[in-house]
């Protein structure tokens, strides 16, 4: 007759619960898996499936009761690790969306806003357009599979442990967050530069011919030049967007390494006595 002890049941629960928490954290915060249009049942099913595939290959788990306070702290730490990895990739899409926002404001499309189901807020038309292009590129280059691979590798670089996470991971995530502004400005720079030249030309034209209605011709000219520059720059956006994807995946890989607790170096041996 088979008998199961409470210790064996706790071990089985912990072997699935703790990896599942990290996986669900990444799925909830990542740009593609965490989209609100994906049903919650699909997200949970994908997380359970990945946990069943990854759990047998991870290092030994700490001998801690998952129902105790120590087990709850491990659960919370795994959730934070998964959320930080998914948020590192979400920053890439935020940078692309910021490029669209800057371009829309420069073109005069600040009033053309739509509801964004991902951020639960309003975003401009150009921002939505660039976000859709980035999503299709994300799927075309299989970056979502590489992100899942980085998630599986994180259980080796930072295994499930009762040791608190080091302070390096939040610091690295904060530094990576600054990439939103730099990358967003770099992506929108061609449109901003072209529209700046257009506005200077319109200003010179207004001074040369004061009878022209600048408000009547300025908006359609700025809008037309902006759309023309976007259509011309689209073929050249693939390289910087792929570079951002690579940087985001590398940031997601480096966060568990930065958060892993580093063992102090051994103390030097005492000097020999004379």
From TrEMBL:
Report which superkingdom the organism of origin falls in: Bacteria
Q: Which GO terms describe its cellular component?
A: bacterial-type flagellum basal body; plasma membrane
TM helices/strands, residue ranges: 12-34, 46-64, 70-93, 129-148, 180-202, 214-237
| Matches recorded under InterPro entries | FliR, T3SS_IM_R
What are the UniProt keywords, alphabetically?
Answer: Bacterial flagellum, Cell membrane, Cell projection, Cilium, Flagellum, Membrane, Transmembrane, Transmembrane helix
Q: Name one GO biological process term.
A: protein targeting
The membrane topology of this protein is: Multi-pass membrane protein
- PANTHER family cross-referenced by the UniProt entry: FLAGELLAR BIOSYNTHETIC PROTEIN FLIR (PTHR30065)
Job description of the protein? Role in flagellar biosynthesis.
What does the sequence similarity comment in the record state about its family?
A: Belongs to the FliR/MopE/SpaR family.
Protein name in the entry: Flagellar biosynthetic protein FliR
Origin organism is Massilia eurypsychrophila
């Amino acid at each position: 007759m088979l008998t199961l002890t409470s210790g064996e049941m706790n071990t089985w629960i912990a072997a699935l619960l703790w990896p599942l928490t990290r996986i669900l954290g990444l799925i909830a915060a990542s740009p593609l898996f965490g989209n609100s249009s994906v049903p919650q049942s699909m997200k949970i099913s994908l997380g359970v499936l990945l946990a069943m595939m990854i759990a047998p290959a991870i290092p030994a788990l700490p001998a801690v009761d998952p129902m105790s306070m120590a087990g709850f702290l491990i659960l919370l730490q795994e959730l934070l690790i998964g959320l930080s990895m998914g948020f590192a990739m979400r920053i890439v899409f935020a940078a692309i969306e910021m490029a669209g926002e800057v371009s829309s404001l420069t073109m005069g499309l600040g009033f053309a806003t739509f509801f964004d189901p991902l951020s639960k807020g309003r975003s401009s038309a150009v921002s939505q357009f660039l976000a859709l292009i980035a999503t299709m590129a994300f799927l075309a280059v299989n970056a979502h599979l590489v992100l899942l691979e980085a998630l599986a590798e994180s259980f080796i670089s930072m295994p499930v442990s009762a040791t608190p996470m080091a302070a390096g991971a939040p610091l690295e995530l904060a530094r990576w967050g600054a990439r939103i502004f730099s990358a967003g400005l770099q992506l929108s720079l061609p449109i901003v530069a072209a529209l700046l030249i257009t506005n200077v030309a319109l200003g010179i034209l207004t001074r040369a011919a004061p009878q022209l209605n600048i408000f009547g011709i300025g908006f359609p000219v700025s809008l037309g030049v902006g759309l023309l520059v976007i259509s011309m720059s689209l073929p050249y956006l693939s390289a910087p967007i792929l570079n951002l994807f690579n940087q985001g995946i590398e940031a997601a890989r480096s966060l568990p390494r930065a958060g892993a607790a580093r063992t102090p170096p051994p103390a030097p041996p005492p000097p020999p006595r004379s």
